Amino acid sequence: MRTRAAVAFEAGKPLEVTEVNLEGPKAGEVLIELKATGLCHTDEFTRSGADPEGIFPAILGHEGAGVVAEVGAGVTSVKPGDHVIPLYTPECRTCPSCLSRKTNLCTSIRATQGQGLMPDGTSRFSTLDGDPIHHYMGCSTFANHTVLPEVAVAKVREDAPFDKICYIGCGVTTGVGAVIYTAKVEIGATAIVFGLGGIGLNVIQGLRLAGADMIIGVDVNNEKKAWGERFGMTHFVNPKEVEGDLVPYLVNMTKRGADQIGGADYTFDATGNVGVMRAALECSHRGWGKSIVIGVAPAGAEISTRPFQLVTGRQWMGTAFGGARGRTDVPKIVEWYMEGKIEIDPMITHLLTLDEINHGFDLMHEGKSVRGVVVY
After folding, report:
1. Start and end of every Alcohol dehydrogenase-like C-terminal domain (predicted)?
2. Average pLDDT over every residue of 39-46
3. Could you give all domains of the chain from N- to C-terminal order, each with its CATH number?
4. Distance CA 237, CA 254 (A)
5. What value, to the nearest 5°, has the Cα angle with vertex 79 and ends 76 and 84?
6. Whole-prediction pTM
7. Which residue numbers are catalytic?
């Protein structure tokens, strides 16, 4: 079949909206008609050429929602007409990682997914001349239709709006999940969130959902203060307005009652800056503080701290997709949204057509959008 897509033919070039060929689903695969897709910084990281693992030509996009149009042989968990969210972190439930119950990082299709291919080692996309086009993060949601493995598709309730729940395919789950599934924040905790972009705001509302008492947001942009407060932030700090070192300033803020040591129970980095990651660890509480790294640092970057920081009980943790198990947890997060436990609508700042997708990335660069969404 033919479908329209925004294709990244070369690194650093604007996406080209054009018709492409899409082969139907093979055994164990699902054809989805996409209804909406979010524009994520990760897509731009690859499009720009900064991603050392970027493969071109490719159809980018990994934050989508749509309807199952057709299923291949052997598919049992979804059927045509089901509403679904594509998963860049699949959940096969049979690989050693899934069976361990210690991680959400399913390994069943990891090798081919990283090569921009389906599990059989081929692509379902091609140009009208027949040249292959790579998949992206196993999803390729910058298209009217896409094909995914069954293990990378989460079935969700049918009354949830596509242009909102697509954000659960990455940003919402990454932020909220880091709190609920990775850090396991408890009621009454203190927390500091570094970086109040889309991910950071979702960390904040995850902390609110978990019942944290003190939620400190840290950002160099004072305009983020109102955004943070909207989602549950209790205190705001602009590092540029702090005299001296930021770490002792934050530690002092978190001293409560008889606790004169200070430091947050939980800290979260949503910046990708390795210097900020260090600060986040060092302002967590001696003895039990947990610092969760969410932001993706540039290729080759390394984090460092004095061993004393770890020997005295602080923990450095990483998280991918918020620690969520895609087919199990994504439907739950959709339920939380529909029940009003978390918010998404305010973060969808721009609705665009596929033809406007490059403008959406311009808005991202200009800092004018929290999340732009393409509606098909």
Report:
1. 198-336
2. 94
3. 2-169+344-375 (3.90.180.10), 175-319 (3.40.50.720)
4. 13
5. 105
6. 0.95
7. 40-42, 62-63, 92, 95, 98, 106, 110, 170, 371
